[in-house]
Amino acid sequence: MAEQQEDCQSDTFSDKHDVKHDAKYARRGWFVRLLPHPLLSLVLICLWMALVNSFSVGGLLVGTLFGMLIPIYTAHFWPDRPRIRKPWKILSFIVILVFDVFIANVQVAYLILFRSPEKLRSHWVVVPLDVCSAEGITALAATITLTPGTVSSDLTHDGKCLLVHCLDIESEEETVRRIKDRYERRIKAILS
Amino acid sequence: MMSQIMEIVIAVHIVIGSAFVLVGSYGLIRLPDLMSRLHGPSKATTLGVGGCLIASVLYFTASEGRLSIQEVLITCFLFLTAPVTAHFIAKAYLHTHKDCPKALPLPKGEHNWSTFDKKPS
Q1: Does B68 lie at the interface with A, CB-CB under 8 angstroms?
Q2: CA distance A135 to A138
Q3: Which of B25, B43, B84 to mutate to test the interface with A (most CBs of A within 10 A)?
Q4: Nearest to A78 by CA among A133, A153, A27
Q5: What's the pLDDT tens digit per position in A117-137?
Q6: Interface test with B, best of A96, A112, A113 (most B CBs within 10 A)
Q7: Gyration radius of chain B over CA positions
Q8: In chain B, where are the structural domains located?
């Protein structure tokens, strides 16, 4: 456990990785320099094609050009790439997320319309985090904001706890358990 | 040409979508303080805008006879930006309310919430 925490800190919340990364970047071959972030390139090409909204070879060429240039110029903003170990699990996560967003909307709409504001049991809740990487925490915080009656508000400096505001909850333990079990576990499974 | 059924499906999506946006906006006046008001626009509107965008996809797919996926992009961008906006508003709330550090639960561990804590060396 102690080792793991040590790893968390050196991995995410230190300023030293820039230097390390530059050295690593300089040692890379021409292919990595040309395509520093293949996944980002692919996403950008798909994004461009969706923006154009019709398929043409010219559009694909321009998209490929952007898809190659943007990662090269923004490579220094990505010192640590998130390693997505199990990409197929993203799909099931998105399905659950969309379903929960739908439920969240109906629930919040019900609370707004039929519950008098004085009877709302709104609370601050502390969620201790197991996810270490900045990308994982960002994904979890965004998920919490999008799902039933919770908005993530603040993070501790060491990235160990998340402050969450709940609109109407039964018990704090139950909310924390649901967040950890339903979302954090899945995000952890995708990233490790 | 669009069939009658398609038009009804599109209309239903638009009506449901706008109903959720209306409820979300109503929440802004009804709920008591800023933090609970945040819940309305950050969630109720995602489904509202989503419903209207699905209607848009269906309409242009039916009327022009080819798949239109630009609207899916808008949904994606909305999903990416809505939590960030909510987070910034929450941060602004924490900064401007003087009683906040005391009203908040303390985190486990040695560091306090980053809004109130000094930068660790």
Answers
A1: yes
A2: 5
A3: B43
A4: A133
A5: 777 777 788 888 887 788 888
A6: A112
A7: 20
A8: 4-103
